[in-house]
């Protein structure tokens, strides 16, 4: 919370300055920039938003279509234009539009937190907005650098048909042993950001990884030459144990989850994909409680674009997507109220069929720490393939 | 007389210089500027040491050198095999008396209309072993052990790409072969040369420019294709420059991705240079204004064996993947028969229990909207790129001595292939996203899609036009100059009709690639301009595989229809003008 109060005025100060320096259109957008959004009451915000009449959102999930419907039902005077696009494309597009000065989105719903921090926030492409209404229900890590409405995961999953008694793995280091040679599937972290974040977190949590090593093997870990920490050593050993790298998460899901396999692999994927089990004939289950952790938990974040044409409606949409005060978060949160996605609001009760965040034991990533470490990890991974 | 001729020719060539400058200016705007933007993004603080990282760091081996080796392997393999197969089929279809050659001709054009991942999936469904887990392929489930080398890596990647791109070489070479004058072949046979000798000494050299163009196209496509190496290469860590490039951009290391694509452009320039040198200084003119009726060769006892080989080829590459793709749209569960069959993904209404309530594609108004937009874009880009490609190729064949201009036009007309679509798209937003003088910002308009599409498709149009123009003898135009025909008139009355096969073929290739293309348009498309390829991508990335495949099939049907229509058109033109 204190953090929010520090960054917002700073950005508010910086923005007109840069606009004034780089373009002569600074004056036109000045009134919007002067608005103290945090001081507005909800009704005042709605009034301004309805005057704008439209809001455009780029989202990394198709579930935004449901939001479009429910938001328009709640605010009939405001038209939502939703574009569903992958996080990577979304980030590139926002940055390009920003440079060209032709921003078309007002709101971005985006998941690649570390990239957002380095590419969008650092260049003032996105601005934070934390609705005052929900600020007290959010832990500080969910309000900065951008507000997050839920957490998603990249965690170790196994096939529960082949392993009805629970996860076949209790400690991540087992995956580096001969029994799992060629039997661990993941998306190449050098191809996809969320998997790179997973590896980065292992490096950041190297002490835990070292402890887990000692737990399992009974001896302290010895690092290979040129390997900086126990997390990276895990990556070295995992790759050396013939880990199978693929190009997308669906491939991991099908490889791990497909029923009828005698000896299925395990793999890192999204816990929430378990919701497709009956649809796709999978038997995906999360390896909750693995030592030291089954993987990462990361935020899905909402930000306002710097050049937003509809700044009030943008903020109203973010407000809406943060959910209402009911136990399930209401209409604005409904599409994200599924097992494997975790609400950030402490007053929304997590969906019943999933293990709780505590039972899961996933590492919550710190986007800024991740951003700082991740390119070094990516570089390291490039050298060990 | 002689000086009068040279004088007239000199006068006639003067407008050509202006045309050359015009073409060059357009190419600079559409291709060089985005490329300069890429280079600038890799330099200085923005580049973040990307050049050193790629070329001289502990990562270089895995980031650049090994992927480079793999890319060249795949590119050369794809280029050579595609050209050989394409040339073989073109010969069977155009010059032989093999039974069923008409059908073979039609089927030969289909693989290019199918998305490369459909062919890769077909490969997987047969050769997949248990390396990745999940459901095994056909052979493995029959108990046949499949070695990794057949399931994953260089071999399946190259063969899948060949199965996709031989059709490109086929289209280009068949158009050229159809223009080889029957009289030349007949004359050769009269001298007592054997059929094989005629084929090797006359027909082959005559199609050399087309074969070279086909090779260059297939090479570039082989090097730049991302989907196939990602699907079939990654599980054994077979990385190519395109998978590395995609990875760099995806994980936020854009500068490194740009460096990789600039290096790709440099490599392509080298290949282009070597290719042109191989054929430099030789004339391939076979259209001389005399009789050009194609003539079929009798193949005697080889008729049936040849027919069998050709039929097997097109069956495996066109029919099997089409069936796999079509079948997958009827499966209730992705790629599994145990869920039963359904029409839901085509015509179903919204059902919350299936694919999160996404309705069948034929019931979705945005799909129909995207269909119209896609066809309009394909047509507009095909027209624009064909015109630009034709003018560029024309300038090149008529101004062989202006080496700098010709070299610049050749290179600029080729490199768009090798700039990753996403980067190209980003560069176009930077270039045309803001108002320029009196011109408004093009961002979010149909126009920016067309402009970017033309830039990205010039290689097809240019290579195919060049191959066709190289066959038209300069004598014809010179004769026309003497009659006082204007440059425009010569173009419309002589050059265009004689090259129509190649040009229409090129236009269709442009149309097909544009209808399928995703990476270029993904950043440029806004909700106001929906396209089918973007919808496929969205559905695929959400895991709605059947919806994605159904739209892919629609795209394939459009492409195949366009190809068939063009063939009819070419047939009509051919008999009407050059006999």
Automatic annotation (TrEMBL), chain A:
This protein's record includes keyword Kinase: no
UniProt entry tagged with the keyword Cell membrane: no
One of the Pfam families matching this protein, by short name: SBP_bac_1
Keywords assigned: Signal
Secretion signal, residue range per the UniProt entry: 1-32
InterPro entries referenced in this protein's UniProt entry, alphabetically: SBP (IPR006059)
Name this protein carries in UniProt: Iron ABC transporter substrate-binding protein
Species for this entry: Serinibacter arcticus
TrEMBL record, chain B:
Coiled coil ranges: none
Subcellular location: Cell inner membrane; Cell membrane
Keywords: Cell inner membrane, Cell membrane, Membrane, Transmembrane, Transmembrane helix, Transport
GO cellular component assignments: plasma membrane
InterPro entries per UniProt: MetI-like, MetI-like_sf
Its membrane topology: Multi-pass membrane protein
Residues annotated as transmembrane: 72-96, 103-123, 165-186, 198-220, 258-276, 304-327, 367-391, 411-430, 442-462, 520-541, 547-566
Segments forming domain ABC transmembrane type-1: 68-275, 371-566
Chief location: membrane
Family affiliation: Belongs to the binding-protein-dependent transport system permease family.
Protein name: Iron ABC transporter permease
Organism the protein comes from: Serinibacter arcticus
